[in-house]
């Protein structure tokens, strides 16, 4: 098995740092899936049905100037590496002004994901800071636990409002109770609310718009105003908004009635999906 990749653009290095920070906030341990055309980060291990789930994808051509990999075989041309997410973020977070950032699967005393950050000095010389992150190479029998989560067709999809605004609202409302109600309809409306024995708070968002595919799937006799809702653990929702660091060009909220909240962020060829089961 072989893997090495290089990012040379400062803008792309920043995107990878942001992505690594998001993964570190949402999954303590993650699996890095190396494919010929992309890198994928996911929650590690066999995830219980009622657990939150993270999935991130980075297209090969999105960030990397160089990219080479050889999987376990020609038929199974993939590599699965389990690692501590925070270790990766710590290794790359100081690379903002670096000339390049390199990732490579190496064999030291044990398998490692080696992160090499090339830094320029004021004298014009360069120095390379190397981090060897211990990884576990997953056997093929465990690959099935790290595949892209299958999300059932949702009842409603709506574009999210400004994430900074949402984060601020969720932070304030989270102090009031343990669970938050998220609801939306096919007319571009979304509400957030929280209720306790002593207080009830609700925030309204209008004219958000619905993704085209959700509009096309709408039955002709479906009430566009009817709200589809799901109660979720406010800590998980807050964790998502506090953890996400990329500046998405598209942000979507999908709701499967009383079952699942599925959040999707897209920045060019980088995507993040986070699923929160109903509470």
From TrEMBL:
This is Checkpoint protein. The lineage of its organism: Eukaryota, Metazoa, Chordata, Craniata, Vertebrata. GO terms for biological process: double-strand break repair via homologous recombination; meiotic DNA integrity checkpoint signaling; mitotic DNA replication checkpoint signaling; mitotic intra-S DNA damage checkpoint signaling; nucleotide-excision repair; telomere maintenance. Gene3D superfamilies: 3.70.10.10. It holds the Pfam family Hus1. The gene is HUS1B. InterPro entries: HUS1, HUS1/Mec3. GO terms for cellular component: checkpoint clamp complex; nucleolus; site of double-strand break. It comes from the Eukaryota. Belongs to the HUS1 family.
């Amino acid at each position: 098995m072989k893997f090495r990749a290089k990012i040379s653009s400062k803008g792309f290095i920043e995107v990878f740092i942001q992505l690594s920070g998001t993964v570190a906030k949402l999954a303590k341990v993650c699996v890095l899936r190396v494919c010929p055309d992309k890198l994928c980060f996911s929650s590690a291990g066999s995830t219980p049905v009622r657990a939150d789930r993270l999935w991130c994808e980075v297209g090969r051509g999105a960030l990397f100037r160089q990219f080479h990999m050889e999987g376990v075989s020609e038929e199974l041309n993939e590599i699965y590496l389990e690692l501590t997410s925070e270790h990766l973020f710590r290794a790359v977070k100081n690379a903002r002004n670096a000339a390049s950032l390199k990732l490579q699967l190496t064999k030291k005393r044990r398998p490692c994901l080696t992160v090499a950050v090339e830094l320029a000095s004021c004298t014009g010389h360069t120095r390379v800071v190397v981090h060897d992150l211990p990884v576990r190479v997953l056997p093929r029998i465990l690959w099935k636990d790290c595949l892209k989560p299958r999300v059932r067709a949702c009842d409603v999809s709506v574009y999210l409002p400004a994430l900074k605004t949402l984060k601020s609202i969720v932070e304030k409302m989270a102090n009031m109770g343990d669970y938050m109600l998220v609801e939306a309809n096919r007319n571009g409306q979304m509400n957030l609310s929280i209720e306790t024995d002593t207080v009830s708070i609700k925030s309204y968002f209008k004219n958000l718009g619905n993704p085209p595919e959700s509009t096309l799937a709408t039955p002709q006799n479906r009430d566009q105003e009817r709200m589809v809702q799901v109660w979720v653990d406010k800590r998980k929702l807050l964790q998502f908004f506090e953890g996400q660091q990329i500046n998405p060009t598209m942000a979507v909220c999908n709701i499967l009635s009383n079952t699942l909240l599925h959040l999707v962020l897209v920045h060019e060829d980088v995507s993040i999906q986070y699923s929160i089961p109903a509470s």
